[in-house]
Structures are given as structure tokens and as C-alpha cells.
Design brief:
Largest sheet: 2 strands, antiparallel
Helix content: 55-70%
CATH superfamily of the largest domain: Dynein motor heavy chain, linker domain, N-terminal subdomain
Shape: elongated
CATH topology of the largest domain: Butyryl-CoA Dehydrogenase, subunit A, domain 3
Order of helices and strands: HHHHHHHEEHHHHHHHHHHHEEHHHHH
CATH architecture of the largest domain: Up-down Bundle
Radius of gyration: 44 Å
Number of domains: 3
Number of strands: 4
Strand content: 5-15%
Number of helices: 23
Distance between the termini: 111 Å
Length: about 475
């Protein structure tokens, strides 16, 4: 195909395109006239806004194309100008038909009378589209109408938010469990799993944050009272959990002591004050009878639970002297414990089966020991290494330690593989202990042992120290 033929072919295609575009424009004009003929007399609540908007957008796009591609574009420009008024009025129709406005009489009144300025009711059959478009300055009021519609939608959104959060919260159940401490004591404990507790706090914090954000939004003013009430419920539940954590921390801290048979025997009155079983049973009854949040969040019920927890915590704070009395007694029995703080001593007694805790406390009592591994006890078990004897001196029962028969009879086997220096050190330690204990039988064995250990900084002394700890924790 030469240049002339190609040019003729392109011209033909352009002519065909322009012809089809013009036909589409005229078709659009006819359809627009048909639509307006129907819409102008249609009751505003019966107008299908989506269908109307879809057609107008299609014609508008067609007009923009024609204005660019056609030499004579008077018709598309005229059609586009007519479309603009209908495009603008769509925002007014959306507000009028918005159920978030229609379902509230006060909002209908504000929109109809105070903003649009018509005496016609929206549902009046005489109030058609042409009457709406003929209202004075209706197009100037469109920004205000759009804003009014937006606020109505946001208010509904926040109303639903508060309703959903309220339903979600009140449908929850208390996640606490109740267990009996032991058969003889029959004391009930209130428990909640750590993961559940963390989840509850996370649930509270997330929802409080959401509600605070909603509260700050001017559009939520209509539901501000509901938001405040729900926030108060979340705050009350968080206060309840905070008080539970305070009480349970005390209980966990002292559990190994207050449920100790020796403590119960020596300080029964103080134990009763610490446990306050009547208060605990009252709290358990409140929580069991009102495990659903829709009942538990009742102000009288949750406040009662919070007050009981506060009383229990206050009881611990006021009666902790009983625990101090007990700790002082343990210190008088074993003077090494004076080196430990109350908290360390409580931790030691409540977690005395933990090797890591024992290692930590040994280092505090014997600070020169840098490294210790309790597996070193494999050299000699408690039963083999120590014998606990009972002697009577002026009717006072004294426990003491002495080197076991195993150590006496099998000293060579025990220290096989050790260096000569360590063997000599071990034998010297044995002789020193026996000599000092015989000369100081008015002292308790652990005191003598402590004095001797101060003279020996070798790893061999760790064996003695570890067995000393086991003895003291019996």
C-alpha cells in the first residue's frame, strides 16, 4: 500500500469514528431527555440514585470524548452542561434517602427545614425532583448537605461501634478458676492463667483506646453518654483485675510460708488473719453467682468484689509482721540467713526445690564463690556425705553436721583423681572441722562450718556449702 492509499484509508477510519461518535451523542441526548421526563416528576424517595448516577456518568464521559475529538462540539457541550445540575443534585438525593437521617425525626427536620428550606415532607408525593431542583440556592447548599450526611453516617457508625462493643463485653465470662489448697486446710484459692490475664488486659486496653478515639470525634456526640458508660465498665473491670493481681501477688509470694505446717502451728492466729477465709469465700460466691459480665458489671456487684480484694490485700499488708516473726525465727535457727533479705528468704522458701534459686542464694551468702554448679553434689549425696544427729545439751535440742562414715572410711576413693594440693586441702578441712567442733560444742555446727569455709576458697568447699544448704532447708 502506497502513501496515498494509506492516507485515504486513515481518513475513512476517522470519518467512521466521528460518525459513530455523533450517533452516540444524539442517542445520549434522546435517552437523557427520556430520563429527565421521568425523573422530573418522580417522588424523590422513589428515585433509583445508583441507576441515575450510572447513566449520567456514562453520558458525561461520552460528552468529554466528543468535545475533544469532534470539530463541532456544540451538542456535547450543551448536554454536558445539563448533566452538571443533575450530577450536583445527586448529593442532595443521597442525603434525603439516607436511612441514618430518615429514621430520626430530628435529623429529617434539620435537613428539610433548616438546610434545604422546603415545607414539603420528604415522603409527600408532590415533592418531586423538579421541585427540589427549583429550590432557591439549592446548589449553594450542597456542601452543607454533604457534611450533614457525613456526620449522620459517622454517628450511626459510632452508635453501632458502641453497641457491638457493649454486646461483646457483656457476653464475656469470668475466666477465673477456684481450687482448694489442700484437704486439711480446705482453703480456696482464686486463680487465672497468666496468658488469660494478659489477654484480658490487652482486650481492655484495645477497647478503651478505641472508645477514647470515638469520644474525641465530634460526630459521636449523640452517643457520648453510651461511650462514657461503656468506658466506665471497662475501667471498673481493669480496676478489679488490678486488685486481683495485687492480692494474688501477695498470696504467691507468701504461699510457701503461710501454707507451711510449721507456720500454721506456730502462728495460727496470724495465719487466720492473713488468709481471711470468710472474705475469700464471700468473693468466690460473688464471682460464681455472677460469672457472666452482664451481671458481674453491675455497679453493686463488681464494686463489692473490688472492695473484698482490697480488704484482702490490706490484710496482707497489715499482718505481714507474722511472716517477719517467722523469718526471724528461721534466722535465729540458721544465722547464715541474716545475710539474706526478707524477699530473698521468702523466695528461697517458696522455691527451695529450684537449683538455680539455691545457686543464687549460695552466692549471696558466700560472695567469694564466682561459679557454682549444684550437679557437683554427684560426688557425694546428702545421705552419704552428712549424718544428722540429735544430742541434748542442757535440755536444748541441737542439730549439727559431722563428716559421714563414708568420708571417714573411703577418703582415698572419694578424692581419687584430685590434685595433691586439693587432697591435702580436703584432709585439712576435715581435721579442722572435727577439731573446731569438739572445742566449740556450744556452737551449732553450721556456725562452725561457716567459720571454716571462710578459710577455704577452693571448689572443695562447695560440697560442704551445698550440703549445708540442703540441711538448712530440711
Amino acid at each position: 500500500m502506497d502513501e496515498a492509499e494509506r492516507s485515504s484509508f486513515d481518513n475513512l477510519n476517522n470519518l467512521v469514528y466521528e460518525y459513530r461518535l455523533k450517533m452516540d451523542i444524539w442517542k445520549g441526548v434522546r435517552e437523557f431527555n427520556q430520563m429527565t421526563e421521568f425523573l422530573d416528576n418522580a417522588q424523590i424517595l422513589n428515585i433509583d440514585i445508583k441507576e441515575m448516577e450510572g447513566k449520567i456518568n456514562n453520558w458525561d464521559y461520552l460528552c468529554q470524548t466528543a468535545i475533544v475529538d469532534l470539530d463541532n462540539c456544540d451538542v456535547p457541550k450543551g448536554l454536558k452542561k445539563k448533566l452538571e445540575n443533575y450530577q450536583k443534585i445527586i448529593d442532595v438525593l443521597i442525603a434525603i434517602q439516607n436511612p441514618n437521617i430518615l429514621n430520626l425525626e430530628n435529623k429529617v427536620w434539620d435537613l428539610r427545614v433548616n438546610i434545604i428550606g422546603t415545607n414539603y415532607e420528604f415522603k409527600d408525593n408532590r415533592f418531586d425532583l423538579i421541585r427540589l431542583m427549583n429550590i432557591d440556592e439549592i446548589y449553594d447548599k450542597i456542601p452543607e448537605i454533604k457534611n450533614f450526611n457525613r456526620i449522620a453516617n459517622e454517628e450511626k457508625e459510632y452508635t453501632n461501634l458502641v453497641k457491638n462493643k457493649n454486646e461483646e463485653f457483656r457476653s464475656k465470662r469470668l475466666q477465673f478458676k477456684f481450687r482448694q489448697y489442700n484437704e486439711t486446710n480446705k482453703f480456696l484459692l482464686i486463680e487465672i492463667d497468666k496468658e488469660i490475664l494478659e489477654s484480658e488486659y490487652e482486650f481492655i486496653e484495645q477497647n478503651i483506646l478505641i472508645l477514647h478515639q470515638a469520644q474525641l470525634n465530634p460526630s459521636s456526640e449523640v452517643v457520648s453518654k453510651e461511650i462514657i458508660n461503656l468506658l466506665n465498665d471497662f475501667e471498673k473491670y481493669r480496676t478489679f483485675l488490678d486488685n486481683y493481681v495485687d492480692y494474688h501477688n501477695y498470696l504467691n509470694m507468701f504461699e510457701g510460708i503461710i501454707f507451711n505446717a510449721e507456720f500454721a502451728k506456730e502462728l495460727p492466729g496470724e495465719l487466720k488473719k492473713l488468709l481471711n477465709e470468710n472474705q475469700v469465700r464471700s468473693l468466690i460466691k460473688v464471682m460464681r453467682d455472677n460469672y457472666l459480665f452482664k451481671k458481674f458489671l453491675n455497679e453493686n456487684i463488681i464494686n463489692k468484689a473490688i472492695n473484698i480484694l482490697k480488704n484482702l490485700t490490706d490484710g496482707f499488708e497489715k499482718n505481714c509482721h507474722a511472716i517477719n516473726v517467722y523469718l526471724d525465727k528461721r534466722r535465729r535457727d540458721y544465722s547464715l540467713f541474716y545475710i539474706l533479705s526478707d524477699r530473698d528468704l521468702i523466695v528461697l522458701y517458696t522455691q527451695k526445690e529450684s537449683l538455680s534459686i539455691r545457686e543464687k542464694m549460695i552466692k549471696k551468702i558466700f560472695p567469694w564463690i564466682k561459679d557454682i554448679n549444684l550437679s557437683f553434689q554427684e560426688i557425694a549425696t546428702n545421705e552419704e556425705f552428712m549424718i544428722t544427729d540429735t544430742i541434748y545439751n542442757e535440755n536444748i535440742k541441737i542439730k549439727y553436721l559431722r563428716v559421714s562414715k563414708l568420708l571417714k572410711d573411703n577418703i582415698d576413693n572419694l578424692i581419687t583423681g584430685l590434685t595433691k594440693k586439693m587432697k591435702d586441702s580436703f584432709r585439712a578441712f576435715k581435721r579442722n572441722f572435727e577439731a573446731r567442733f569438739k572445742s566449740k560444742n556450744n556452737k551449732r555446727s553450721h556456725e562452725v562450718l561457716y567459720e571454716i569455709v571462710n578459710d577455704y576458697k577452693s571448689n572443695l568447699s562447695q560440697v560442704i556449702i551445698m550440703n549445708l544448704f540442703s540441711y538448712m532447708m530440711e
